[in-house]
Fold this sequence. Notes:
This protein is α/β, with parallel strands linked by helices and 323 residues long.
Amino acid sequence: MPAKPVVRAAAVQIAPDLTSRAGTMERVLNAVTEAADKGAEFIVFPETFVPFYPYFSFVLPPVQQGPEHLRLYEEAVTIPSSETRALAEAARKRGVVLVVGVNERDHGSLYNTQLIFDADGTLALKRRKITPTYHERMIWGQGDGAGLKVVDTTVGRVGALACWEHYNPLARYALMTQHEEIHASHFPGSLVGPIFGEQIEVTMRHHALEAGCFVVNATGWLSEDQIASIHSDPKLQKGLRDGCMTCIITPEGRHAAPPLTGGEGMVIADLDMKLITKRKRMMDSVGHYARPELLRLLHDTRPAQPRQDWAPEPIDVEEPSDA
């Protein structure tokens, strides 16, 4: 049974500070306070929101990306760090479960990373996007199957995927087989144009229906001044507008509250966890509706390691006998 019969969730759509990690962290912590004051127990922020999504990589050719890519290295989050400690403390202080997207720096590489903090401040999950999309492959490394994991939290069983990972049906199925109750997702927002927001809505509603879970999705937002700071060409600036769909979807595929498709704000809704059983009574895709004797998933849960220590056992050599 779910940990709580009703969970109040908040999906946050705000702009990052494109100039500093500290500025974006301040916005995150202020939003946590605002959402918690409104009774939220589960709060989701946009994709790689700290310090910011690498919008530059969508409009700049690779040969011109170097300075901005290096600046992202300098502003990225290491784990653990003062930023992760601040997020953990915010979760503990307000008794909320937080899902925050960060650019994670691990020595010489960056990763698109999702962090789930439980209500006691524990880091319940750190996972990396398994396949960066298109332009993102110039920016981030790849995650592994160890991150495709559902975790028990104060509000229930939570799974998470980022952006177009939702177009990998086996990645979604890996979470579904672990019986996620609340699915946290996020996209960059302010990208591609209106069609991106439409596609997000279809994808979120489909996952909620297929998994029989709630989906809490957050997308980011850019102001006109921020768009102009990324690129001065009006034609390319069109690719940095719209594409927002911050929403909360029920297991029946319905919006639990009106979605937010522009500007800053929050979508807040109460999740009636009984709807999970109501949906799965009709169609449980990893239970009575599954056919594992015909179709099943092979999931490699081992962390990807560039080095594995190995010390062979010494070989015993028998001394020759005197006989």
